[in-house]
Write a structure and sequence with these properties.
two-stranded antiparallel sheet, alpha+beta
Length: 77
């Protein structure tokens, strides 16, 4: 994995430790090309935060900060 992807994994692990109820899913865009295209992922890493109804509230292309993801999670609830 590339350096930005590893940094993003660390950010999401930190967020998960702070918000254990957050559901985090990883998409292998090389393997799941149709799904990546469907959700509009063009670069990696990309982090997308969705509401329970599937509405997107945040998208970061590149490494987000912990604070960005936490704010996005707050918007999602």
């Amino acid at each position: 994995f590339c350096e930005p992807c590893m940094a993003t994994r660390k950010v999401l692990a930190d967020v998960s430790a702070l918000v254990p109820s957050a559901r985090i899913a990883e998409l292998d865009v090389a393997r799941d090309t149709d799904e990546a295209e469907r959700v509009g992922i063009r670069v990696t890493p990309t982090v997308v935060v969705l509401k329970d109804d599937g509405t997107e509230v945040f998208r970061a292309e590149g490494v987000p900060t912990v604070n960005q993801v936490l704010v996005a999670l707050a918007k999602a609830v």
